[in-house]
Every structure is written in structure tokens, then in C-alpha cells.
Amino acid sequence: MVRQISILILLLTSVLLIPGGCSAESMENAYSNSRLASSANASTNTMSNSPESSNAESTQSSKAGNEKILVVYYSLTGNTKDIANIIKNETGADIFEIKSEFDYYRKDVEEVVKKHLSEGYKPKLTSSLHNIDQYDLIFVGAPVWWFSVPPPVMSFLSQYELKGKKVVPFCTCGSDYGDFFKQFENECSDAELLKSISFTKNQLSKKDNVKKDIIEWLKEIGIKK
Ligand SMILES: Cc1cc2nc3c(=O)[nH]c(=O)nc-3n(C[C@H](O)[C@H](O)[C@H](O)COP(=O)(O)O)c2cc1C
């Protein structure tokens, strides 16, 4: 019931704020007024379209201790991308953006995503990672879509072998991540999942705290001293 009410609020907000198009600004307002402006109480949790073939964008020192780290993310309006970049900067990780052949940047995104999720549709990805074997620890971040993991991220999780690797999920959402982490966990049952983190729209709006929360979390999971 609570979930139905919150999704109704999300949809009403989007109807009010996306009257005639799918500009970056309208998408942003509809779901996340907050682009990393950040968070006093981020929650942690225990547990384009032309084909592109690329390796992860490399930094000079993508190692913490002996572990080589990668940050993988999918982001439609930029919130998750901002978090991914903070994690990258704080850990010296390489970074990789998941890109989907299906362009979700559209006015009817809610309906389309709802349909795709119910069908278990996994879009073809147009960015690819050739060197995943070299990474010991992989952060994977996404926006929450209908309380779930977005289809392009489901494609990523089923396409790449994460067995034996440490995987750290993170997400951004309007207000409720629902089954996101449960679903993520089911898709990565062979990996060693570390404690996740999530940021709501409100948390994202308290910019100064986001970085602080991320640093604390990285220390807690043993990635940063
Ligand atoms: C299709 C769609 C469905 C969404 N469903 C939810 C949801 O179930 N719960 C929620 O709290 N936010 C929901 N949101 C809001 C996004 O999760 C939130 O704005 C997120 O920070 C966007 O991340 P991004 O900027 O990286 O794309 C939804 C947004 C879209 C476009």
C-alpha cells in the first residue's frame, strides 16, 4: 500500500513536471530535483546509441592495497553518475558507463520501463568491457526504476562473470529503493557482496554530506583508510 502510494506520487510528479518532452531538466525535476547537491543520512545496506567497444576509463592508480577496483554505473539523469565519480575519485578506481542500445531518455519512460521489467527484457549494451578479469572489486551503481534494477544493469549483470569478485552495489532513488538490493543480490549470487549504499532525492540535495557519507562508507567496508 505504502509502495503503491509512493509510486503514485512519483508518477503524478512526473506528469506535472514532464508536460511535453523529455529534456534533461524535466527528467531531473521529476525524479530527483536534487542532483547531488547530498546526504546527511545515506542508507547503507548489508548485504547513446552508436555501438561502442571500450575498456574502462583508466586512472593512474586504480588500486587500493593490492586490489584493482572498477566503478560501473548506469545513469539516465546524472545522479548515479555523480556518485560513481565520487567513488572513483576517492578510490582511484577505473570507471565504466553502461550504455543501452534502447534509449530510455524519452517522455514515456515510466510506461516503457514498467513493460520491460515485467517482460524481463534485457537490452543489448552498446558499451563493453574487455578487461573485467583484472578487477578484484567492482562497484555497480544504478538509479532505482520501479523499485527494481534497471534493464540495462540487468543486462550487465547477466553478461559479465562476477563470480569470486567482491561486488559493491549502490543506487540513487526518489524516496524508496524497494527490492533493488534484493534483486541485485539474486543476480550476483556467485559474487561476494559488500555493504551497499543508497541515496534518496532528499539526501542528494544535501550536497556537503554526500561525499562525507561515501568516505565513511568506504572506510567501513575497508576500501579506504
Ligand atoms: C522509470 C523510472 C522509475 C523510477 N522509479 C523509482 C522508484 O521506484 N523509487 C524511487 O524512489 N525513485 C524512482 N525513480 C527516480 C530515480 O530513481 C531517481 O531520480 C534517480 O536518482 C535517478 O538517477 P539517475 O539520475 O542516475 O538516472 C524512477 C525514475 C524513473 C525514470
Automatic annotation (TrEMBL):
InterPro entries, sorted: Flavodoxin/NO_synth, Flavodoxin_CS, Flavoprotein-like_sf
Bias (Polar residues): 51-62
Biased composition (Low complexity): 41-50
Chain intervals for the UniProt region annotation (Disordered): 41-62
Protein name: Flavodoxin
PANTHER family assigned: EXPORTED PROTEIN-RELATED, FLAVODOXIN-LIKE DOMAIN-CONTAINING PROTEIN
Highest taxon above the source species: Bacteria
PROSITE patterns reported for this sequence: FLAVODOXIN, FLAVODOXIN_LIKE
Residues annotated as domain Flavodoxin-like: 69-222
GO molecular function: electron transfer activity; FMN binding; oxidoreductase activity, acting on NAD(P)H
Gene source species: Ruminiclostridium cellobioparum subsp. termitidis CT1112
One Pfam short name: Flavodoxin_4
